[in-house]
Design a protein that fits this description.
single chain; alpha/beta; 5-stranded mixed β-sheet; 10 strands; 45% helix; globular; binds 5'-O-[(R)-(carboxyoxy)(hydroxy)phosphoryl]adenosine; binds zinc ion
């Protein structure tokens, strides 16, 4: 099968995503977000997210099938996020995918959400260069990965030892009185600010940290530094320069992410870098990494921002890649794994 027609279902957090691909061609990518329901809580409420998936799944599936102009009976396979993510949310997608697979009599693949983020660029820019170094930056994960084969072999090179990058954005937004999710609003505010206004700490970049944590990240000290700075400014009775704080915070995050990514690629001797996850939509991360990768003579693959955040197309893309690699289907007996490690590409 050279170009399998694959449906991808994503429900690990607050986005219900349904994507359809034919081989490496994107046919449809419909996303229903429950983010509005979580805003007043300042973060995703798992039970609310699960219920929203339940009501959004069928309409989103219908929209995707119409957009792709395909009959579900013509699918070659169904791929679904098996983890990592919120247990209840994952279960809704998994149960729906199993029901569809049984009804349509199609093979089912339970795939890794994180691998979806890393793979999605192939829908934008064609087959992935391999081996590659991937920077995965989302709300729950921040990892450097050695991608030897997107369908069969991915190993972790480093990861955050505390907060994820997206989590730091969300927490700093809260400190600055900006809404959830913090990433897009800080990105926007930062564009009006001065990134050199405050020199915030760069986690795990001191010489003694590099010995043990050369490819690891830490963002909780940065988050605390921002909170302290803002608090002190308020005690002093001054107005908080939100744009400058946002830009200075963002610069600290992106400086460390990009420096360690290029260092890891050079260390592994790979000539290409992939990025994925919600924070990969960040404008500063994208330009700074482009500059630093170019300086190092390394190719950078950046999916369009809309494909960086959670969606079903990235799950369909992994489904298609594993089929092309001859990986066997998961079967209907699979369960959700909230802590699925990135090295498990298909359950
Ligand atoms: O990958 P994703 O959609 O969901 C998870 O798997 O976690 O990532 C969501 C995270 C949130 O923390 C959000 O604030 C962040 O991605 N994010 C951004 C941007 N857009 C989304 N962070 C920085 N800049 C952005 N433009
Ligand atoms: Zn994600």
């Amino acid at each position: 099968m050279s170009e399998p027609l694959v449906l991808g279902l994503e429900s690990s957090c607050d986005e219900t995503g349904v994507g359809i691909v034919r081989g490496r061609t994107l046919l449809a990518n419909e996303v229903a977000s429950s983010v509005d329901l979580h805003v007043r809580f300042g973060g995703v409420v798992p039970e609310v997210a699960s219920r929203a998936h339940l009501s959004a799944l069928i309409p989103t599936l219908e929209r995707a099938a119409a957009k792709a102009d395909v009959d579900l009976a013509d699918l070659d396979a169904i791929a679904v996020t098996a983890g990592p993510g919120l247990m209840g949310a994952l279960v809704v997608g998994l149960a729906s995918a199993k029901a569809l697979a049984a009804y349509l009599n199609k093979p089912l693949y339970g795939v890794n959400h994180l691998v979806g983020h890393v793979a999605v660029d192939l829908l934008d820019h064609g087959p992935l260069p391999m081996p590659s170094l991937a920077l995965l930056v989302s709300g729950g994960h921040t990892q450097l990965l050695h991608v030897e084969d997107i369908a069969t072999r991915i190993t972790e090179v480093g990861s955050t030892i505390d907060d994820a990058a997206g989590e730091a954005y969300d927490k700093v937004a809260r400190v600055l009185g900006l809404p959830y999710p913090g990433g897009p609003v800080i990105d926007k505010a930062a564009q009006q600010g001065d990134p050199s206004f405050i020199r915030f700490p760069r986690g795990l970049t001191a010489k003694h940290d590099l010995e043990k944590h050369r490819f690891d990240f830490s963002f909780s000290g940065l988050k605390t530094a921002v909170a302290r700075w803002v608090e002190q400014r308020r005690i002093d009775g001054g107005a908080v320069p939100v744009e400058d704080v946002a830009a200075s915070f963002q610069e600290a995050v992106c400086d460390v992410l990009t420096a360690k990514t290029v260092d890891a690629a050079q260390h592994l001797g790979v000539n290409s870098i992939l990025i994925g996850g919600g924070v990969a939509a960040n404008s500063r991360l994208r330009t700074l990494l482009e500059e630093r990768a170019a300086e190092a003579g390394i190719e950078l693959r950046r999916p369009r921002p809309a494909l960086c955040t959670d969606n079903g197309a990235m799950i369909a893309a992994v489904g298609s890649e594993v089929i092309l690699a001859g990986v066997r289907p998961s079967g209907l007996g699979i369960s959700a794994h909230s802590g699925l490690p990135v090295s498990t590409i298909v359950v």
